[in-house]
Structures are given as C-alpha cells and as structure tokens.
What we know:
Radius of gyration: 15 Å
Order of helices and strands: EEEEHHHEHEHE
Bound molecules: ligand L45E5XJ5, 2C-methyl-D-erythritol 2,4-cyclodiphosphate
Helix content: 25-40%
CATH class: Alpha Beta
Pfam families: YgbB
Binding site for a divalent metal cation: 11, 13, 45
Number of domains: 1
Largest sheet: 5 strands, mixed
Pathway: Isoprenoid biosynthesis; isopentenyl diphosphate biosynthesis via DXP pathway; isopentenyl diphosphate from 1-deoxy-D-xylulose 5-phosphate: step 4/6
Number of strands: 7
Strand content: 25-35%
Site (Transition state stabilizer): 37, 136
Binding site for 4-CDP-2-C-methyl-D-erythritol 2-phosphate: 11-13, 37-38, 59-61, 64-68, 135-138, 142, 145
Shape: globular
CATH superfamily: 2-C-methyl-D-erythritol 2,4-cyclodiphosphate synthase
Amino acid sequence: MKKIRVGFGYDVHQLQAGYDFWLGGIKLAHEKGAVGHSDADVLIHVICDALLGAANMRDIGYHFSDKDPKYKGIDSKILLRDVMKLIREKGYEVGNIDSTICLQIPKVNPHIPEMKKCLAEVMGIDEEDISIKATTTEQLGFVGREEGVSAYCAVLIEKA
Ligand SMILES: Nc1ccn([C@@H]2O[C@H](COP(=O)(O)O)[C@@H](O)[C@H]2O)c(=O)n1
Ligand SMILES: C[C@@]1(CO)OP(=O)(O)OP(=O)(O)OC[C@H]1O
C-alpha cells in the first residue's frame, strides 16, 4: 500500500537594514534583508522543516547547526538540496507543497513565478507541485511593524 505522510514547517527571521533579502531562492530588492546564520531564506527553511517533519527526521537546525561555522552565510538552496537527498534516501518523493509567507512589504506576488521555477529546479520536482502564497499581517505584530518575516509550509510526501 502507498504510504503518504504530511509535514509542517514554521520559521521567523528578523529584517534589518544592511542585509540581503533572500526569499524562495531569489534575492529581492528591498531596503531591509533577513538576518540569520545562513542566508536566512525563511521560505526555504520552512520547506526543509516540513519535509524533514513529514519523514520524521527532526528539523533543519538538527541537520545544519546554527553554531557550525560551515553553515555561516550558506545559500539555503544547498540545504534544501541536501534535505531532498535525505528524504529520497528514505524512499520518499514529494507529493505537493503549500506555503504562506507573512511579510508586510514588499509585495511577493510578482516574484512567485521565479521562486517556483528556482525551487522546482533545486528540488527536482514539478513547479505545479509547489504553491507559494503571501499575506501581510495588516500592520499587526512583528511582521506588520516590518521587523521580521515568517512563513508556514505544509507538504505531502509519499512512497510506493
Ligand atoms: N508581502 C505580500 C503580502 C501580500 N501579498 C498579496 O496581497 C494580497 C493581500 O494581502 P493581505 O495581507 O491584505 O491579505 C495577498 O492575498 C497576496 O496576494 C503579496 O503579494 N505580498
Ligand atoms: C539554517 C540555519 C543554518 O545554520 O541557520 P539560520 O539561518 O539561523 O536559520 P534557522 O531558521 O534559525 O535554522 C537553523 C539553521 O539550520
């Protein structure tokens, strides 16, 4: 019988001036960028966490410690590629991904096609199986005050 599992991811990064803003594998032009040990790509991080959770393989920080200098400034696409390797070693393939980015500004919608193309290539899956959505938080909370960006992700993985 085919085995289907669900996974979920949530992550937050601060936004500060003087940092690049990597999101969904691409660099956005903005006066603030995301702060982290890695390139702080919050969308990729939640996809990684959702995939690892679905496969019952802990989380991103367990595999790629934020204390390890090896990961300082690392391109999160490299981490995502490694996570795909880990779940495929367990015999899983991605069913579909659904994600939401919480960001007050800038608008994400114009960039979603490029993000999907980039992530599909990194993961070796069909763009049609990746959904990316965005919401402001109506000026409320840390996202609304433009102090941070957060994201949520649900995935299905399956094996024969
Ligand atoms: N950073 C963002 C936030 C939102 N969007 C798009 O705008 C729509 C309206 O946002 P609300 O927070 O008022 O719901 C939202 O549904 C997204 O389509 C965006 O592109 N980038
Ligand atoms: C991605 C890693 C890599 O060291 O560092 P951060 O960029 O700080 O991101 P976080 O979401 O805190 O996840 C932990 C780490 O795996």
